[in-house]
From TrEMBL:
Gene source species: Allosphingosinicella ginsenosidimutans
Localisation per UniProt entry: Membrane
Main subcellular location of this protein, as a coarse class: membrane
Phylogenetic lineage: Bacteria, Pseudomonadati, Pseudomonadota, Alphaproteobacteria, Sphingomonadales
Listed GO CC annotations: membrane
Residue ranges of every copy of the Outer membrane protein beta-barrel domain listed in the record: 8-192
Name the UniProt record assigns to this protein: Porin family protein
Positions of transmembrane segments: none
Domain of life, source organism: Bacteria
Length: 192
């Protein structure tokens, strides 16, 4: 009986490395949290803030190539305020709010744990304007607007064990009405 147990354990030990290298490291459904630097550009003015959010996706690996789809929701602390906009004491603030994204990515596996990728897709960002007249409030207003755009980017993903990963990414989003964003972010995720 013990020789069968030893044979089973030995077979399992030999098969485990083969299982770990079966090409599925960058394959399947995934979910991740992301955080990073956000720079919004609106009508010649730049504003900086922190980007944070979540992304879900699904990847299929074919040899060293990886094809995937992504869906993402983020928010940002990026805003810009101007005092004395039209009269002394008034204040106008523009805030870069939530951003929705859906797109695809194409990757190349560099090693057992590392992959580089490029991404492209549709993005919809929300910009809000708040104006306080600094007096009676009769001219105060709050207005939000959704802007459609296109996002492109590139990144690197590094597997930590079989299911967890970290990544670093740069992306550029170009929206209608001359609004754009540059973002550098990091993420931590899990594959299922």
């Amino acid at each position: 009986m013990s020789k069968y147990l030893v044979a089973i354990l030995l077979a399992g030990a030999v098969a485990a490395p083969a299982y770990a290298q079966d090409g599925s490291t960058f394959s399947g459904p995934r979910v991740e949290g992301i955080v990073g630097y956000d720079r919004a550009h609106v009508e010649g003015e730049n504003s900086d803030g922190v980007l944070y959010g979540a992304r879900v996706g699904y990847d299929v690996r074919a040899g060293r190539a990886v094809l995937g789809i992504d869906g993402e929701i983020t928010d940002s602390t990026t805003d810009e305020c101007i005092s004395g906009f039209t009269v002394a004491g008034d204040r106008l603030c523009a805030n870069a709010g939530r951003d929705l994204y859906v797109g695809g990515r194409v990757g190349a596996v560099l090693s057992r744990n590392a992959m580089i990728y490029g991404l492209a897709g549709y993005t919809n960002g929300r910009i809000t304007l708040d104006y306080n007249d600094g007096g009676t409030g009769a001219a105060n207003f709050h207005d939000g607007r959704n802007l459609d755009g296109v996002r492109v980017g590139a990144g690197i993903q590094y597997a930590i064990g079989r299911n967890a990963f970290v990544n670093a990414e740069y992306r550029y989003s170009n929206y209608e009405d001359g609004v754009s964003r540059n973002q550098v972010l990091g993420g931590f995720g899990v594959r299922f």
